[in-house]
Model the fold of this input.
Amino acid sequence: MFSKITTDIATDRSRRSRRSTKQRRDQLVLASASPRRLALLEQVGITPVAMRPASIDETPAKAEMPRTLVNRLALAKAEAARKVVRKEKELAKAYILAADTVVAVGRKVLAKPTSRDEAGASLRRLSARSHRVYTTICLITPENRVRNRLVETRVKFMRLTSEDIDAYLATGEWRGKAGGYAIQGHAAAFITGVKGSYSNVVGLPLRETVNLLRGEKFNVYLSWLSRGSADGSGR
Done:
């Protein structure tokens, strides 16, 4: 059920992982295998020390509302990661961050399509309509406190022709994407409006994630300050 990625991301990406124990007192484990979520975190200077994605059943319960579903799945991912991370000596005191994203038209959840036909059906449903993208971020602290935030963004699609849909399906971007599209990719050409957090639609609402971490005393700005010192702009 649990896929373990043992690579130390910080070591692979830069020599920053060789900083002192004091500098690395705040460790973050990302309970996801998503390259999009990793890239978003790194965009704001947060590099997880490891990724521990959990494979859980994401099937909605009967009549389950989108908000309820996304809250439940994010918590389930975080809890699954905690069971593994707390057994690892090097990560036993790490923060654990999980997230889940759901795309919904009204009460209808558009799951990640498993085939080209399902992706096409999702795009036809989104055509010329507004839909909502929900992401819940769930943080487990070193003291095992559980904190979460639900973020909602409204996205409007233009009217899609059969040519539009066929061309997009040919890109393959729909694979593994809630709702069958990636706003950061070719589907950006279909978007007529976004109300709310753009990064939420990509897969991780950055402002809310940073605020959640800071609220639990995670040193978000350590890498920012270190970079400033390294390039001579610090004091």
